[in-house]
Amino acid sequence: MKQTIRFASSFLFKNCLRIALAFLLCGASSIHFAQAQEEAPKVQDNATPKNAKQKKADQKKEARKAEGESLIQKGLERHMEIQTKPVRKRMKQSKAESERINKNKRKPFYKSWFRKSQKSRKWYQFWKKRGKK
Asked: What is the 3-state secondary structure (H, E, C) of 44-102?
């Protein structure tokens, strides 16, 4: 009889210990999440200017930023204008290819199937020269 009482009390103690440990862990994690949610949202520095000087400085900063962006755009347009037509075409193709690669897409299958090989190009040039003579 004593053995069954001892067994029952040790079994009861182990279960109570496990339940207490589970509550302790759950409570600790909920306290952590509660503290994480209580943090105040960050306010942007330029969201509310303090005075007229700050407002004026922000306006100048925005104007300089817009001016810089327009200068960059004009420079890109000028760069494209001074290129020859075949160079612009190559630039356009390489830009499209780089965008495709960055999107992680493969080349279409028909591009590799119907590409002229180096041998066929040389053969074509040979016949073209031969016909002109």
From this structure: CCCCCCCCHHHHHHHHHHHHHHHHHHHHHHHHHHHHHHCCCHHHHHHHHHHHHHHHHHH
Question: 106: part of which helix (H) or strand (E)?
Answer: none
- Spatial distance between the Cα atoms of 100 and 110, rounded to a whole number of angstroms: 16
CB 84 within 8 A of CB 76: no
pLDDT of 88 over the 80 cut: yes
Of the two residues 131 and 89, the one the predictor is more confident about is 89
Distance CA 126, CA 20 (A): 90
- Tens of pLDDT, residue by residue over 16-62, are 567 766 666 666 666 655 666 666 666 565 556 579 999 999 999 99
In the block, which residue shows the tokens 């400085």? 57
Contact 58, 49 (CB under 8 A): yes
| 59, 46 Cβ separation under 8 angstroms | no
